[in-house]
Design a protein that fits this description.
Number of domains: 2
CATH topology of the largest domain: de novo design (two linked rop proteins)
Order of helices and strands: HHHHHEEHHHH
Shape: rod-shaped
Number of strands: 2
Largest sheet: 2 strands, antiparallel
CATH architecture of the largest domain: Up-down Bundle
Distance between the termini: 22 Å
Radius of gyration: 31 Å
Number of helices: 9
């Protein structure tokens, strides 16, 4: 119990406030770190969907390439087939690096594919046979656009959270460390001394607890 009977409270009160200090010290970072982790998890889920779309497109293209076509159809449709294969490589590069440059390359590749398809006189068996492959390729591109959006959001969230870090410490804790070092303030308690300087958060939390419990003593100290 505290010496002042009029203001008596359990000794555990000091410990409880110490733990609150941990929360206070980390709160600004934690408020941003949790959404950042969530955005990263969402981006990873989209990445899985995008890769599944790649596999589906690869299978559809493979099936189309194995189709039986009349020679009169294969020659005029060959440029379209070439553009389908070229576009798939560009899309895979976009998946590996989901950024604005690769997205533009992917859209350009699909546009070239569509132009080549449009140039084929219909009816044409190859164009028909490659219909599912082109549809699957379009779905792959759509997933990649989602991936880029999700990755951009996750990167921005992580950058915002990391801006509140200073090395291994949160910026709030680092301000405290810089202050006590500048002023030559010694750890307030045996517990703080035991963990200083390897675990500076314990000194911060002891100071916080004392600020709430013994503000007059803390100010004098």
């Amino acid at each position: 119990m505290r010496p002042n009977a009029a203001d008596a409270r359990p000794a555990s009160y000091e410990v409880l406030i110490h733990e609150v200090g941990h929360a206070v010290e980390a709160k600004p970072f934690d408020d941003l770190n949790a959404p950042a982790a969530d955005d990263s998890a969402k981006a990873n889920a989209v990445a899985v969907s995008a890769h599944n779309a790649q596999v589906a497109a690869n299978k559809a293209i493979g099936a189309a390439l194995k189709g039986s076509y009349l020679k009169k159809d294969t020659t005029p449709a060959q440029p379209m087939v070439d553009e389908v294969l070229a576009a798939q490589k560009v899309l895979q590069a976009f998946e590996a690096s989901p950024d604005a440059t690769h997205e533009k390359d992917a859209n350009d590749a699909i546009a070239k594919r569509d132009a080549a398809k449009k140039a084929v006189t219909l009816p044409n068996g190859v164009v028909t046979g490659f219909g599912p492959a082109i549809t699957a390729q379009d779905a792959y591109l759509a997933e990649l656009v989602k991936l880029r959006t999700a990755r951009d959001k996750a990167d921005a969230s992580r950058k915002a959270a990391d801006a509140l870090k200073s090395g291994a410490n949160t910026k709030r804790l680092q301000v405290f460390v810089d202050f006590v070092n500048k002023e030559g303030i010694k750890p307030l308690t045996a517990y703080a001394k035991k963990h200083w300087p390897a675990e500076p958060a314990e000194f911060y939390d002891e100071a916080f607890s004392m600020w709430r419990n013994e503000p007059v003593f803390l100010e004098k100290y």
